[in-house]
Specification:
- This protein is of the alpha/beta class and 351 residues long.
- The chain has three domains: 66 residues, no CATH class; 109 residues, Nucleotidyltransferase, domain 5 (2-Layer Sandwich), CATH 3.30.420.10; 146 residues, no CATH class.
- It contains 16 helices and seven strands.
- The strands form two sheets. A five-stranded mixed β-sheet has the order 5-4-3-6-7, sandwiched between helices. It has a two-stranded antiparallel sheet with strand order 1-2.
- α6 links the parallel β6 and β7.
- The protein is elongated and about 95 Å long.
């Protein structure tokens, strides 16, 4: 504005935010659309540039963040990382277990990144945190121990079972490669290997079943289809090693469903069984599980998991795909906080 006394000055107007080229109503509609659809759709509908959408989201979220206490009343939190772009680019996210909302997100996956959250939280509020769930990343455990030493750190059952699924996948892949090698040798007429002695299931047929058995091995038994059950029955009858690996995976998953007073003995029995199985992948897994024995039992005793955190991570990935990627992580963080932080904008005129 131009004043005769003071010259050209910047004045606050109620219908626009500072340093914005759009009105408040326009920006609120853009922000609402951004939480509902892709950035491309927003640019086409509102006739603004791709970068303008990110700038609007950042301004709207900055205003909400400045007027809202996002970290009040935190007692149980979940910490995890989520990839938002190729090249191992990650966000570190923190969720509130009591409400399921996203509390904070920061660029990177390191001690320095997570420390930013605790710096914002402050020592007094950090002391009020009683439970923390996370994967087995050492940097998370170190930062949590430094900032809230009294908090109980629980292992995430999702990640523990994922370790077992990964080990099972490696065993299946080994068996598949061995079977493929035999099938190729047979097709070249180089004679039959001992593994192909069973004429009922020649190597090429076993190879086909093993290729299609991946999801049957990973899936929970209660969710299996008839076809997948048949594949598991075939594995049990023809491949004792792979079947043993599957049983160990399922036994580890079921540990999180036993009563808390029985969990220590059941977990110790599983570790002993995995050590004796002579399957290298599960021997290594037994070592990892034993190292996380305390956090695993805490998770069972308190009924905690990173399930809500994983749900938030899934929604973050979904929004990233809908927007066809984010070059600016700060715009992505602002969008995620708007969508998942419990303060989603409403359409103007419909409050």
């Amino acid at each position: 504005m131009r004043c005769r006394v003071h010259g050209v000055v910047v004045a606050h107007v109620p219908w626009a935010r500072h340093d914005a080229g759009f009105t408040r109503v326009f920006e609120e509609q853009v922000a609402w659309l951004a939480t509902q659809t892709s950035k491309f759709a927003v640019t086409e509908l509102m006739r603004i540039a791709w970068r303008s959408v990110g700038a609007v989201i950042a301004r709207v979220w900055a205003e909400i963040e400045a007027s809202t206490d996002l970290m009040g009343g935190l007692t149980k939190i979940g910490i995890d990382e989520v990839s938002y772009r190729r090249g191992r680019l990650f966000l570190t996210v923190v969720i509130d277990h009591d409400t399921g909302r996203l509390v904070w997100a920061g660029q990177g996956q390191s001690k320095a990144t997570l420390q930013q959250f605790f710096d914002l939280l402050g020592p007094q509020r950090a002391a009020q945190i009683t439970h923390v769930t996370a994967d087995a990343a050492e940097y998370i455990a170190d930062v949590v121990a430094t900032n809230c030493a009294k908090a109980v750190q629980a292992a995430d059952p999702f990640h523990v079972v994922k370790w077992a699924n990964d080990a099972l996948g490696e065993v299946r892949l080994e068996v598949w490669r061995q079977t493929r090698k035999i099938a190729r040798a047979n097709s070249r007429g180089q004679g039959r290997a001992p593994l192909d002695a069973d004429q009922e299931f020649p190597a090429h047929q076993r190879l086909k079943i093993l290729t299609r058995s991946r999801y049957a091995l990973w899936k929970n038994p209660e969710n299996l289809t008839e076809s997948q059950r048949a594949k598991l029955d075939w594995i049990a009858a023809t491949d004792p090693r792979l079947w043993r690996a599957y049983q160990l995976k399922e036994a580890l998953r079921m540990i999180f469903r036993v009563p808390a007073n029985e969990a220590p003995d059941v977990l110790d029995a599983w570790v002993a069984s995995a050590r004796r199985c002579q399957i290298p992948q599960f021997v290594d897994l037994a070592r990892m599980v034993n190292a996380q024995r305390g956090p695993i039992l805490i998770a069972i005793d308190n009924g905690l998991s990173n399930g809500r955190t994983e749900a938030v991570n899934h929604k973050i990935r979904l929004r990233t795909r809908m927007a066809f990627g984010f070059k600016n992580p700060h715009a992505l963080i602002a969008l995620c906080m708007l969508s998942l932080g419990g303060h989603r904008p409403t359409l103007p005129g419909r409050r």
